[in-house]
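[agent] plan:
  1. take the single chain provided in the ticket
  2. run structure prediction with default settings
  3. attach structure tokens to the ticket
  4. add a short note for the reviewer (M.T.)
[agent] executing step 1
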Amino acid sequence: PSFVCYDHIMSTHFAGHPLGQSILGTNASITALTAEQMQNYHRSRYHTGNITLAVAGNCAFDEIVALAEKHCSCIPQGKSVRALPEVVPQPSVRTVVRDSSVQQHIMQMGSGPKSDNPLRFAAELLSVVVGDDSNSRLFWELVDPGHAESADLGYSEYDGAGAWMNYLACSPEDVAENLARCKKVFDDVNANSIQADELEQARNKVASRIVLRGERPMGRLSSLGGNWMYRNEYRSIAADLQTIRSLTLQDIREVLDRFPIRMTTTVGVGPLSELTIP
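[agent] step 2 finished; step 3 output follows
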């Protein structure tokens, strides 16, 4: 259900924007897809201007270059221009009824910093304080007392857009009260920000995750490729850690002033056909 919820909230929150398009598509769209359409898409996207070769680990640079020239020189040259219109989500509520679901799954989205916004680092720390899966404000307000099975807030950075995403899983009869509890947490943070000790705990969590991610090849490659594709920059683990260490409560306040945790889109998957949004 959570995957269904995610697919629907992306298409609803980013309606009319490329981010709102389903990656998998539907039975109808896949059935109607022709070989010519696939070939045209391949020609328009799979060229040197739209492909980044990322290499991490103990490697010989000259050898990598030689191998790339040998195996990739046949890739046609070209340049893709991505349309990145401004995201202007309209307040909306959508439900997908599933009588077989025991719990109600809720996702909410609100606007956050884009992938090229320096405030993305502070937004990540803020999301950990407010909605990490343990020892966060949502955890203590909803999960620890037993009001909900899951309640978390994440920050997602996209190319040309950014978003806060709230996820809630609980009994259908508790949805209205739990959404009110979530809003209470968000409103308090928007008004009063967070405490210094919360920032320090989040800083340690995020720093540990950055280091652990860097110990895995896929973690290094994902970071390397994403930084280059989104921002045309290389960032080392040390640089990310230094940025995390330098963040202050004033940075958190700036994020909240410019991108308050305010949900505009809500999607529910489960037995309920209607949702009451506080």
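[agent] step 4 note for reviewer: The chain has one domain: 2-17+88-270.
[agent] ticket updated
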